[in-house]
Write a structure and sequence with these properties.
The chain folds into 2 domains: 53 residues; 111 residues, Cupredoxins -  blue copper proteins (Immunoglobulin-like). It contains 6 helices and 8 strands, in the order ααβαβββαββββαα. Helix 2 packs antiparallel against helix 6.
Length: 223
Amino acid sequence: MMIVPSYSSANFLIISTHYKDPNEEVSIQKESREQRAESREKKKKKKLRRMGGAGGVAVVVVILILSEWTRGGNAAQHVVGGSQGWDVSADLTTWASSHTFKVGDQLEFKYTVGLHSVVELGSESEYKNCNIGNAVTTMNGGKDMVKLSKVGTRYFVCGTPGHCAQGMKLKVNTLAASVASANTTDSSSSSSSSSTLKSYYVYLVLTMLLVVSITINFSSYSK
C-alpha cells in the first residue's frame, strides 16, 4: 500500500513564508547598490563643496595678506642715530639729512633706560628752545617705535635735562610715499636688505600655507 503524505494548511503557510522570489531578491540588491552609489556621490559632492570653500578662503586670505604686505612692503624702519642710537654722541642732524622719511616708515629710538628718554614736541619754537613743558608724548622704554603716519614735520628731543641743548634732538620731515620714492636718498642699505629678506620669507611662508591647504583638501576628498 502506498502512503501519501498529507500536508496541513499550517505546513503550506510555513513553506510560503520562507519562500523568496529570486526576482524580488535581485531587485532589492540592485536598489541597495543604487542607494550606496547615491550615498557615495553625495559624500563626494559634500567634500568637493568643503574643499572648494576651504580652498577659496585660503586663496582669499593669502591674496589679502600679500596685497597688504605689498602696499606696505616699501616702508622702512630707521634706527635713529644709526649705530650710535639715540644718544648725545650721535650727530642726529647729519643722520636725519642723509635719510628720506615717507609715510608708513617707522623710527626706532634705541637708548639706555634711565639715561635718556624720547619727548615729542608740537612746534618748531618748542623744538628750537628745548621747551618740553607741553610735550605731545613722552617715551622711556629704551626701544621706542614711532610710525610716521602722515605728511608733515615732527620734533623729538631727549627729556634728560641738558641733553636737548647739547644737540640730542631730531627733526623729521615726512613726505608722501610717491614723492619719497621719486627722490629717495636713503643710504640705510641694511634696512633695505632686511626689508627685502623679510618680504621673501613672508611670500615663501604664505605660498607654503596655500600649498598645504590645497593638499589637505585634495587628500580629504580622495578618501
